[in-house]
Amino acid sequence: MQPKTNFEEYWIVRSFAAILLFGQVWLHLLQGKTYYRKIMQHMVTAGPDSISPVLLVGGFAGMIFTIQTARELVRFGAVDVVGGAFALAFCRELAPILTASIIAGQVGSAFAAEIGTMRVTEQIDALYMLKTDPIDYLVLPRVIACCLMMPLMTVFALVMGILGGVFAAWQFYEVAPEIFLESVRDFLEPSDLFIILLKGFIFGVLVAVIGCSWGLTTNGGAKEVGESATKAVVTSWLSIFIMDFFVSVLLFERIDF
């Protein structure tokens, strides 16, 4: 019986493999060989098939955040800045993170499970026999699909969150929708929208690359496929929060100064 691999060492090795896969993806992208039908298929998976949880979470998160912040601001007579506080926190940070987390749980895990199953059943070896590069056929379409759909899903979550915030502020604290939206417009700058879309793009890369990498490095059987899917989601979440921290510090601090 082989000794169980140390978790930290196992995670570091597979994370390094994900970094190498990221480099291979961009190299293959520059070579221009893509399967457009596969891209469209995965865009449906990362977009329309995931829209319901994204909208639900965005709407309820917007209402919850507004209820918690408006209660304190109204107490101090700062009704006019309820939407501004919402814009600074929810629009800049929560909407991209929540959307990426949902896509990681639904799409990233599916990528890891699908490719992991192909790995343990030797279907990837069959692709090599057919002179088809698995990166071109399996990984690149998924990465492109997530890069295109994640920013769009983030915008949908943002709009739904704003609508939820407007409803909660009006229903529970009698803050007029026009006051809320005016405050959002005053605090949210055009450059913020670009940064939100940039975060969506970066998170899309992370989710797709990590999911595919964990699938490609799966060894064993059905149990290992399930473990790869779970660990891909957890690793994606960690990567999303870490990357969001650095992006926020680098971009928002630079803008403020």
TrEMBL record:
Pfam families assigned: MlaE
InterPro entries documented for this protein: ABC_MlaE_roteobac, Permease_MalE
Superkingdom, natural source: Bacteria
Keywords of the record: Membrane, Transmembrane, Transmembrane helix, Transport
Annotated compartments: Membrane
Stretches that traverse the bilayer: 12-30, 51-67, 152-173, 193-217, 229-252
Membrane topology term: Multi-pass membrane protein
Family: Belongs to the MlaE permease family.
Stored NCBIfam families: MlaE family lipid ABC transporter permease subunit (TIGR00056)
Name assigned to this protein: MlaE family lipid ABC transporter permease subunit
Species of origin: Nostoc paludosum FACHB-159
